[in-house]
Specification:
The protein is of the alpha/beta class. It has eight helices and nine strands. A five-stranded parallel sheet has the order 2-7-1-8-9, sandwiched between helices. Strands 4-3-6-5 form a four-stranded mixed sheet. A hairpin with a 2-residue loop joins β5 and β6. α2 crosses α8. It is elongated. It starts with a helix and ends in an 11-residue tail after the last helix.
Length: 225
């Protein structure tokens, strides 16, 4: 009888401890989210992030680094951090990037220091990376939230890439083949958002709804880098 009572007391103590931990977690200040927006070229990753900024949504944006030349109107430290190939290779060698890859012959990556600084602000953090980069970030930081941004159809994706007029036909064909391969990785993402033509705000609304829902999780995500 005593052994049964002792076992029951131990069980109650364990339950009380779990309840206490759950209550502490609930009342603890909500940690910032790390949101990774990815998707194929032409899906509108830059446009979605820009509209989030224009609307005054509360988040810090982590700028990607690259060794490609800036396009017209792109600014260093705003659109990308533009480095020489030698500088980029030094950052890789010194493990200064949370992820990096060669995409269409160009280096791209995200500096670790920028993520740490953004998370320290206490605000949600948003990154815009290619699909390869998103996969790497998710493996390293499983509590990151990955969103695959997509067009409403393959035909629309082709139309957008042609409208940019930044690629030759050969380069365009390469991007479309890469996009086909990237589509196969959708199941590895947490969410999919469709950025339809002339419906940019609807796509931003979906992204913000995801972030609001994540802040309502019973057990919040905590990113540590």
């Amino acid at each position: 009888m005593k052994d049964t009572q002792d076992a029951a007391d131990c069980l109650r103590q364990a339950q009380d401890e779990l309840l206490r931990q759950a209550q502490d977690e609930f009342w603890r200040e909500q940690p910032p989210l790390l949101v990774v927006i990815s998707g194929p070229s032409g899906a509108g990753k830059d446009s979605v992030v820009l509209r989030m900024k224009e609307r005054g949504e509360p988040f810090d944006f982590v700028v990607t680094a690259t060794d490609r030349a800036p396009r017209p109107h792109e600014l260093h430290g705003v659109d990308y951090y533009f480095y020489t190939t030698a500088e980029f290779e030094r950052m890789i060698a010194e493990d200064e990037l949370v992820e990096h890859a060669i995409v269409y012959g160009q280096h791209k990556g995200v500096p670790k220091a920028h993520i740490r600084q953004a998370l320290a602000s206490g605000r949600d953090v948003v990154m815009r990376v290619d699909v390869q980069g998103a996969k790497t970030v998710k493996a390293l930081l499983p509590e990151a939230i990955t969103i695959f941004l997509n067009c409403e159809s393959k035909e629309e994706l082709v139309a957008r890439l042609r409208e940019r007029r930044t690629e030759s036909e050969e380069a365009l064909a390469q991007r479309l083949e890469t996009a086909r391969e990237e589509m196969a990785l959708i199941p590895a993402f947490d969410y999919v958002v469709v950025n339809a033509r002339d419906a940019l705000d609807a796509a931003v609304d979906d992204v913000m709804a995801i972030m609001r829902a994540e802040h309502c999780r019973a057990v919040p995500r905590r990113v540590s880098l």
